[in-house]
């Protein structure tokens, strides 16, 4: 009896691909670094830091162990928190972020103040304005899902009230607002190289970005036992260095990173084309100006689509329906905004964000995803809502056979 051929499953994020897609080159890098015994603070790290800073149009990039440490270091190097006049001061952030954003504020010795996000799911400048008090010392926007917040509005507020800006750019390498890269707007910023991030390494990794030489010098000391670039101990410090091996891998990947952005923007445009007729879902802003490859400097928002975050009616039913078809999805942060983790003792009442979290979910978005897979996902979403077939539907043939369901890590691309 003939058996029906099942379409391959579509994992939310295919973790093995982080290694397998560049297997030969990564093994070569591993042997090269290993044979040189170049593990900590070596030339590969220096080269990567230089290339990353150049890529962002920033003066300094300092590799750190992960973006959470990077945020703590960025805040403290920017003169905020412990041992400063700003200790105990309030720092405003969007509650739609990873708990790491608020944890960094806490561990830097300041008070996290969560606020609402706007229609694009990023921090709402009007909510920031309303939350400013005499105790506010900084604004910490999360450049969420590969999009940069309205930094003109946030910059104006910061100038008006004498506040610092420190960016959580964990999800936003290469994303721009009015031509300027995320991570370069404030006193300092932090980027993540977690494997599922835009530029992922084979473990944890991050970088602190700044244009200010004295902030950079303090960050260098804070991430390396208090030692300045001349090796002299200048004060208390952590050990939060990016491994040289990870830096070598990241440098190899950074050289071809523009292709990855192009691919993500093309996939986002495809989702937009395939899903925009379904009234039950709200999609993120599409690549602006309708042209995936347009000059990033010419756009207000150049989004790099770390995630593809939608709002959906009957969200849980849709997720179960897609799961039954072998299509992985993810709830951002496990389904709660930061202020909803009651154990943290944050008392904010943020009805818009709470409503959003009843509807929000992430569809697969990564460089190994094919357009045919986007079409299959879109067709399944349309089927769930009983909508007409997507106008430009493709065939499911040719789905990536190397995608197996390794969606074990519930952190996914968050
Ligand atoms: C918005 C945001 N902030 C901070 C972090 C923390 O990054 P890391 O895991 O590198 O510490 C992440 C992701 O993990 C994130 O998505």
Count of domain modules: 2
Strand fraction equals 5-15%
Stretches with pLDDT under 50, minimum 5 residues: 393-413
Helix and strand composition category: alpha/beta
What's the overall average pLDDT, rounded?
92
Secondary-structure element order, N to C: HHHEHEHEHEHEEEEEHHHEEEHHEH
Write the layout of secondary structure elements.
Elements: H1 17-20, H2 23-36, H3 43-56, E1 60-64, H4 67-77, E2 90-94, H5 99-107, E3 111-115, H6 125-131, E4 136-139, H7 151-161, E5 164-168, E6 176-177, E7 180-181, E8 188-192, E9 206-210, H8 213-223, H9 244-254, H10 257-275, E10 281-282, E11 301-302, E12 308-312, H11 315-324, H12 351-356, E13 360-363, H13 371-385
The protein binds pyridoxal-5'-phosphate.
How would you describe what is shown here?
- 34% of the residues lie in helices and 12% in strands.
- The protein starts with 16 loop residues before the first helix and ends in a 29-residue tail after the last helix.
- Residues 393-413 have low confidence and may be disordered.
- The chain is globular, with a radius of gyration of 21 Å.
- It has a seven-stranded mixed beta sheet with strand order 1-9-8-5-4-2-3, with helices on both faces.
- The chain has helices at residues 17-20, 23-36, 43-56, 67-77, 99-107, 125-131, 151-161, 213-223, 244-254, 257-275, 315-324, 351-356, 371-385; strands at 60-64, 90-94, 111-115, 136-139, 164-168, 176-177, 180-181, 188-192, 206-210, 281-282, 301-302, 308-312, 360-363.
- The relative contact order is 0.17.
- A hairpin with a 2-residue loop joins strand 6 and strand 7.
- The protein is of the alpha/beta class and 414 residues long.
- It folds into two domains: 19-254, Aspartate Aminotransferase, domain 2, CATH 3.40.640; 257-329 and 364-385, Aspartate Aminotransferase, domain 1, CATH 3.90.1150.
- The structure holds pyridoxal-5'-phosphate.
